[in-house]
Amino acid sequence: RGSEMIFKTNNYMKKLFLATFFLCIATLGIQAQIVKPHQGKAAMKSIHNGVNESIKTLDQNIHPTGTHNVWDGYIYPRLGINLSTLLNMGGNPKISFSGGVGIEVFVLPRLGIDMELNYSHQGTAGIYTKFGNTVSGPYDYRLDYFSTTFLARWYPKATMPLSVYSGISLSNCVNAKSELKNGTTTSLKDDHIRSGDFSIPIGTSYEVGQWAFDLRYYASFLHIAKSEKAKRIMGNATNMRIEATIAYKILFL
Hints:
Blueprint: H1 2-33, H2 40-58, E1 73-87, E2 92-108, E3 111-131, E4 134-154, E5 162-180, E6 185-187, E7 196-208, E8 211-220, H3 228-234, E9 238-248, E10 250-251
Antiparallel strand pairs: 1-2, 1-9, 1-10, 2-3, 3-4, 4-5, 5-6, 5-7, 7-8, 8-9
């Protein structure tokens, strides 16, 4: 019941994030519609000036160290690749992409608290299954997750922009399929695998200007299989993922 409440909270936060995004888009659309024809040039000039000001705001002259002002806040889009597999199933690791957006706020000069909304494509390839004397495969398992991640980030050295961190990550599976080599695809979502996952990320990050280079390992503990059929095939399989990303940090507080 506790894990169910966690995943419901995770879904609520993602819905709130998406609702805010679409509200911004709708507001821009309404503003565009009320511009009168003879105001077109002035409107375009205003938009152009706004874009230039936004670029100036994003391009900040930052020389990062391990010490920050308390309540400094950063927002950072992040993009990269991950190496994933399903432990206890064998097969070959899958290389794919991941990304998202995060917010970091410093509660102590060298301690930041982060919240991230992320997407990742995970899975494994080259899996063979056996029922009786029949062996079939290879199968390619593809899983897509949206996650909310909470981190405590510590900068060990005051003069160096190097951080180490850990926390929790709550994920919701939005797509899960297994594909046989001949192209036959089977949906695994809802009926066969858990809709959510829980993991502990452990990582390190180094900053150069506004860029942050991040390496992270996710340790998952929940067995993916839910149905009896899935348990016979997947056993006690759990997600495992190593992620390397680049983030662009923008000071906003």
